[in-house]
Design brief:
Elements: H1 3-8, H2 13-43, H3 51-79, H4 84-101, H5 103-117, E1 126-129, E2 132-139, E3 143-147, E4 153-157, E5 164-168
Antiparallel strand pairs: 1-2, 1-5, 2-3, 3-4
Helix pairs in contact: 2-3
Length: about 180
C-alpha cells in the first residue's frame, strides 16, 4: 500500500484521513519553518548587508516553499490512490502546456532570475518601475515587491522591469 500505512499499520478510511491531515499540516509547518529560518539568517547583522545574498535568499525561499507544497500535494494524491508517477507526468505535461500558454509567466520567471543574478537591482534599492516608485522589498519568481512612500506594498510583474529606473542604492549608516 503506502509508506505511512506500512509504518503505522493504518488501513482504514480514518487512517487515510489522518495521514492526509498529517501530510498537509507537516508541509505547512515545514513552510513556516523555512520562512522563519530565512528571516533569522537574513537578520544576522553584519557591517554591510549583502543585497545580492538577500535577493538570492528570497528567491531560494520561494523555490523551497513551492517544492514543499508540490511534494505534499503529490503524497496526498498518492494516499487517495493516484499514482505518484502519474502525478509527476501530469504535472510535467501541464507545466509544458502552461509554459507555452502563458508566456508572461515564463517571462516573469526568466526576468526574475536575470535580475537577481546580474545584480541589476537588489533588495533595498530605490527604483521606479512602470510608474511606481518605491524601495525594493523583495524579488520573487514572478513579482518585484516595492514599498512605496505610503508604506503600501506594490506587486509588479518582473516583465515590467524593462521600464525600470534605479534611483539610488541603499545607503547604510552605522550608529555607535
Amino acid at each position: 500500500m503506502s509508506f505511512f500505512h506500512g509504518i503505522m499499520g493504518i488501513e482504514s478510511t480514518l487512517g487515510r484521513i489522518l495521514v492526509i491531515m498529517f501530510l498537509a499540516l507537516g508541509s505547512h509547518v515545514a513552510v513556516i519553518f523555512v520562512k522563519r529560518v530565512g528571516r533569522f539568517l537574513l537578520s544576522i547583522t553584519s557591517p554591510k548587508p549583502h543585497e545580492k545574498l538577500i535577493s538570492l535568499a528570497s528567491l531560494t525561499k520561494s523555490f523551497i516553499i513551492f517544492f514543499l507544497y508540490f511534494g505534499a500535494f503529490g503524497l496526498i494524491l498518492r494516499e487517495l490512490g493516484v499514482s505518484l508517477t502519474t502525478y509527476l507526468a501530469s504535472a510535467s505535461v501541464i507545466g509544458l502546456a502552461v509554459g507555452f500558454g502563458s508566456q508572461g509567466l515564463v517571462q516573469d520567471v526568466v526576468t526574475g532570475l536575470t535580475l537577481v543574478l546580474s545584480n541589476l537591482i537588489n533588495v533595498g534599492d530605490m527604483v521606479e518601475i512602470g510608474g511606481q516608485t518605491g524601495t525594493v522589498h523583495s524579488i520573487g519568481m514572478r513579482f518585484i515587491v516595492l514599498k512605496n512612500a505610503f508604506g503600501a506594498e506594490v506587486f509588479i510583474p518582473n516583465r515590467k522591469y524593462n521600464k525600470c529606473y534605479k534611483l539610488s542604492s541603499r545607503i547604510y549608516t552605522l550608529y555607535r
